[in-house]
Design brief:
Layout: E1 10-11, E2 27-31, E3 34-38, H1 46-54, E4 60-62, H2 72-79, E5 83-86, E6 102-105, E7 108-110, E8 118-122, E9 131-135, E10 138-140, E11 154-155, E12 165-166
Length: 167
């Protein structure tokens, strides 16, 4: 999908073209309460920093699972924001959080920096704390779920998520 084909509120955050490791990607969500970054890439360069700052910076970073933990502390430092991580994946963190930017959460968590407009939902699977993000009637799944075409409406798999039918 090209940047011009993206739905409103989503920005092409792929200005970082240097692919490291497993080829991570990040998605910049432009909510009415401010921007959040869904996952983050390992390589943080001036072009990416400028791109995000031109869009209004970041209120928070939300990470789906440990494969995206690499440079989250550097991202948080550059943008002055917290990072939401699932507490059940704490064992995979290998550096001290000197600036106390990590928010270790479980279950369904509203992203408070944007007034709860988005929610991090722990689903488990790939890792115990693997999570998805719900925003603007869109479900961002990383590799927590695999999507396939179906002919019936999508239903939330966990009754505890409180969303019911998603349309």
């Amino acid at each position: 999908m090209s940047p011009s084909e993206l739905p409103p509120g989503l920005a092409d955050s792929s200005t970082t073209r240097k692919q490291l490791g497993i080829g991570q990607r990040a998605i910049l969500l432009q909510t009415s309460g401010g921007n959040i970054l869904w996952d983050c890439v390992a390589f943080l360069n001036p072009d990416t920093i400028n791109f995000i700052k031109e869009k209004g910076g970041l209120k928070a970073i939300v990470i789906s699972h440990p494969h995206f933990f690499t440079t989250h502390l550097e991202w948080a430092s550059v943008f002055g924001c917290p990072v939401y991580l699932c507490g059940d994946d704490e064992m995979w963190l290998n550096r001290k959080d000197k600036d106390v930017v990590r928010k270790l959460v479980k279950g369904v968590t509203e992203i408070e920096e944007i007034g709860g407009e988005a929610k991090m939902i722990q689903c488990g699977g790939h890792f115990d704390g693997s999570s998805v993000l719900w925003w603007d009637k869109k479900l961002f799944i990383a590799d927590t779920f695999m999507s396939v075409p179906v002919s019936s409406p999508l239903f939330c798999l966990a009754a505890s998520c409180g969303f019911g039918k998603i349309s």
